[in-house]
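Long-time lurker. I teach an intro course on protein structure, and each term I like to show students one example going from raw sequence to a predicted 3D structure in token notation. This year I'd like something fresh instead of my usual example. Would anyone be willing to generate the tokens for the chain below so I can use it in lecture? Attribution to the forum is fine with me.
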Amino acid sequence: MSLIAKLRALVTLGQGMVGGLPELTSADDPIALFKEWYASAKQAGLFLPEAMTLATCTKDGAPSARMMLLKGVDGEGFVFYTNYESRKAAELIDSKQAALVFHWPTLQRQVRVEGSVAKISQRESEAYFQSRPRGSRVGAWASKQSSVLGSRVELEQSFREYERRFEGADIPLPDYWGGFRLRPQRIEFWQGRINRLHDRLCFERMDGGWQVVRLYP
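-- Reply from a regular --
Happy to contribute to a lecture. Here you go:
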């Protein structure tokens, strides 16, 4: 992190720790607040501010979680990409529910998101896939994500085979790869404060709008 980034992080941290979260109303938009916090995390020069924990569960309610990267956010929800044949995708398709956690410890901020999940359109997936580095696109073809792998050599051999297959040509979107969108039902913002008297504001979707309450830390 550069000196300028460190200074930005300190300023943002100080504003959050001292000023805390304001009293918001149901007219306020939690997506807009998330975008503001996300922009602050990027401007502060934090490493991978788009990193998030994605929590899923099986039909029997057994949970699992892993780190993912946020690839888009708008009024419709939070978008991320994966292999549709992976464990996480199978659980998302079965339960149609998921949760996300963003944690920016340098800024003493955390955002929790819960809601329903659905695949995005093939057109959206295609557009993002073609924006990825060529090696990442080859890797999407080479990896049978979450399947048992005999050895590292096997994976690297698969990668080389697909490199040869697509040499000098466009790399198409695999039919088993694409994005999901989590449509938030609940979004909670956590701001660290002194004496562990942290601020927590929770937005919940109600009748097409949002209801907001303040929670004890």
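Some talking points for your students: The radius of gyration is 20 Å. The CA atoms of residues 50 and 70 lie 5 Å apart.
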